[in-house]
Amino acid sequence: MNHENWSKLARIMSKRSLWMIHFCTGCGAMEMPPVMTSRYDMERFGMHAMATPRQADVFLVTGYLAVKTLKRVVQVYEQMRDPKYVIGFGSCTINGGMYWDSYNTIKDLSKYIPVDVYIAGCMPRPEAIMDSFLKLFDMIDKGEAIGWQKYHKYYDQYKRNQRMAFSYRLDEVKDIKEDDKE
Amino acid sequence: MTIQKEFELFIGPNHPGATGNMSYHIWVEGDKVKKAETRVGYLHRGFEKLMEKRIWMQNVPLVCRICVPEPDVNEAAYSMAVEDLMGWEIPERAKYIRTIILEMARIGAHLLTVGGIAASLGIYTAAQWGVGDRDYLLDVFEEITGARVYHIYIWPGGVRWDLPKNAKELITKVLDYLESRLPLYDDLIMNNKVFVRRAADVGVVPKDKAVEWGVTGPNLRAAGYEYDIRKLEPYAAYDKIDFEVPYYPKLGEYEVLSEGSDIYTRTAIRMLEIQQSIKIIRQALKDMPEGDVILKHPQWFAWKVPAGYAYTHVESSKGEFGYFVVSDGGKKPVRVHVRGPSYTHGINVLETIAPGLNIADFAPTAISLDVCPPDIER
Amino acid sequence: MMAKELFPEAQEIRKGRIRIETQKDKVGEIIKKLKDNGYEHFVMLSCVDWIKEGKFELVYQMWSYQYKEHVMISIKINRDGESMLSMRHLFPQIETYEREIHEMFGVNFIGNPNLKEFILEGWPHMPPMRKDFDTEKFVKDFYYKIPEVKEE
Fold first, then answer.
1. Residue in chain C lying closest to A169 (CA)
2. CB neighbours of B296 closer than 8 A, spacing ≥ 6?
């Protein structure tokens, strides 16, 4: 088998054993227990909550992110192994949602880490979450869930945006350019 | 080679034992906690700033997001504060509906907490059950309010709309089901020898200090005080309803196995409160009068709330939820300050009682105090 | 003794809600006296920004389980850098409230050693809860201006 067929096979194998990092970043974490437990039971998709980032494949960013949390989210995301997938959960990850004018929450998650699937709504229903999992499986199957490759490719842009957010200042950009030269 | 005796340990924010998105920084020697520090701020959205920028009615969808497991208490407390300043008396039927909604939310939150305490002590079945049974309540909420988690049902002036026609059957069915489940929870948790040995006399909040430290709610009642805002300053329809406040050492069917104020007693109080809540909802459904459910007040974006100070508090599943609202007579509030019960439980109380605990007992203690980070940092 | 008997200047704003307006050097004494007289639950410490007057209003709130009464002790201090004495020796939780107010409004509390960062992390601007901090403008100038990741 050539390389392309191997990676196709690997994708088929991996999509049915995705482990989710157990990190409740926002209020969307409230709809995760029903999904994880008996009523909706995501284990039938081979998904399971995992406490350590190194063994997790999927990151559900559940809701709004305060800048303080974004630091932890980036750290956790970078600790996860490739291939890794991010699901942006709720309206807050798309455009800030109802915190559009809050001084402490980021407005668009895809500026800081690549997002594969978004779920709209505040808060999304468990059915929507399950649907996003199926969508993700489909994308993995077709080889469209390539957020983690984007993170490698545009690493400097993601890092620049992250540093801007962490410092609450736009003028941090200059420093980064100098860093990159070194 | 020297042996390092003291270690630093970070529990959270990415940790199953942390109660939500918060973290504890603990210093341990062997497996004894020497010192603990609570780190919060991961969920800060600046609610109080946003509320100053929005008109009175626009704040209702904001406030419910302050406590995720039990959002209705926020809507109720905020609405009561606005009604207080406006001098409104809400219709009788709305009061009963509020009572029903608040008690249903309390049962849901208690099921989560009891399941969480048990899960942190290794009884994972309880967490599955708690979440699963809570989901039936969410179904009823959806039928009544249109949403599972954030209901935005209690408004200044009453409730948004009347209960659906089949509400009584729906609610009674869930209550019957829950009542049939409670003995099973007792078998699984309260009569479980492992639970009793892990939970009795662990994580004790000193009884003589409890009031001074600002402990409220079930945690205060577990320390032996019969204080409940539903009785002290009745809101909604609680003054017309006959119910008991469980407190240590009156633990009903549960044995008094410890000195009180520990994880075991706090869990027992919560289980008893679920029973009482079921009783309250049944009574409220029976006694509920007919009539309007919302005041006929002017268009909501024309409201001007008279200048003044108001403080209203409600008894949530975690403790006293208070709203301090200041108005200067304008269309927007000058200041809304929220007192979350976890503010004292999660920071001062936990930091003070943590030294001497075993590492394995730290997470159950935090969960049994029902520390919920969104109401600390808002 | 109830608050109205202890302090004649106290006014009842509605049933069970008492308001005492006082000066900043008398606060400690009043809280101590109330604590000894049945007002044993310290509810919270709030700060209100009255920007037109140029004042911060600090409201110390206490509750008595015995009398079912809520007391708000209110003082006003100047907005520009006036500090307040810490009351943390009276109730331990006041320390946390002071820490939050220090961070969110920039009020300094003398005698509180624990005024380090609480909620925000590395916040370089004006304390955000002050009325002259415009959150909408900040969001438009900052979060919306962060460039999107350009894919070639």
1. C142
2. none
| Cβ–Cβ under 8 Å, residues B224 and B211 | no
Separation between Cα atoms, residue C46 and residue B312, nearest integer Å: 14
Nearest CA in chain B to C121: B41
What secondary structure, in 3-state letters, does chain A show? Answer: CCHHHHHHHHHHHHHCCCEEECCCCCHHHHHHHHHHCCCCCHHHHCCEEECCHHHCCEEEEECCCEHHHHHHHHHHHHHCCCCCEEEEECHHHHHCHHHCCCCCECCCHHHCCCCCEEECCCCCCHHHHHHHHHHHHHHHHHCCCCHHHHHHHCHHHHHHHHHHHHHCCCCCHHHHHHHHHC
Q: Are residues B179 and B252 in the same domain?
A: yes
Q: What percent of chain A shows pLDDT beyond 70?
A: 94
> Do residue B30 and residue B85 come from a single domain?
no
**ipTM score of the complex?**
0.91
Q: Which residue in C11, C19, C35, C43 has the most chain B C-beta atoms within 10 A of its own C-beta, making it the best mutation to test that interface?
A: C43
- Distance from C-alpha of C19 to C-alpha of C44, rounded to nearest angstrom: 14
pLDDT computed for residue B302 by the predictor: 79
Range of the domain at C37: 3-145
Q: Are residues B52 and B20 in the same domain?
A: no
B-chain CB neighbours of C50 within 8 Å are: 334
Same domain, B25 and B112: no
pLDDT at residue A92 greater than cutoff 90: no
Strand partners, C64: C69
Q: How close A6 gets to chain B, by Cα (Å)?
A: 34
**How confident is the model over B329-347, as pLDDT tens digits?**
888 899 999 998 988 888 8
pTM for the full predicted model: 0.91
| DSSP letter, residue B358 | B
Q: Does A122 touch chain B (CB under 8 A)?
A: yes
pLDDT at position B18 is 67
Query: Is the minimum CB–CB distance between A53 and chain B shorter than 8 Å?
Result: yes
Residues C29-54 as b or e (16 or more Cβ within 10 Å = b):
ebbeebbebbbbbbbbbbbbbbeeee
Upstream peptide bond of B13 is cis (omega within 30 degrees of 0): yes
Closest chain A CA to residue C119: A68
Q: State how many domains chain C has.
A: 1
Structural domain span for residue B19: 6-39
Question: Measured between beta carbons, which residues in chain C are less than 8 angstroms from residue B49?
Answer: 128-129, 133, 135
| Both structure tokens of C37 | 């007289």
User: Is C96 close to B347, i.e. CB distance below 8 A?
Assistant: yes
Q: Given A27, A36, A66, which is nearest B65 (Cβ)?
A: A27
- Positive or negative, the CA dihedral A102, C133, C100, B266 is negative
Q: How many distinct structural domains can be found in chain A?
A: 1
Cis ω for the linkage preceding A83 (within 30 of 0): yes
Distance CA B288, CA B309 (A): 32
Q: What is the mean pLDDT of chain B?
A: 88
In what helix (H) or strand (E) does residue B29 lie, and over which residues does it extend? strand B23-29
Closest residue in chain C to residue A163, using alpha carbons only: C146
**Are the Cβ atoms of A69 and B13 closer than 8 angstroms?**
yes
The interface residues of chain B toward chain A in range 17-46, judged by CB-CB distance below 8 A, are: 20-21, 41-46
Q: Is A55 on the interface with B (CB under 8 A)?
A: no
Phi, psi angle pair for A128, to nearest 5°:
-65, -35
The CATH number of residue A83's host domain is 3.40.50.12280
Distance from the C35 Cα atom to the nearest Cα atom in chain B, whole angstroms: 9
Chains B–C, number of C-beta pairs less than 8 Å apart:
89
CATH number of the domain where residue C23 is located: 3.30.460.80
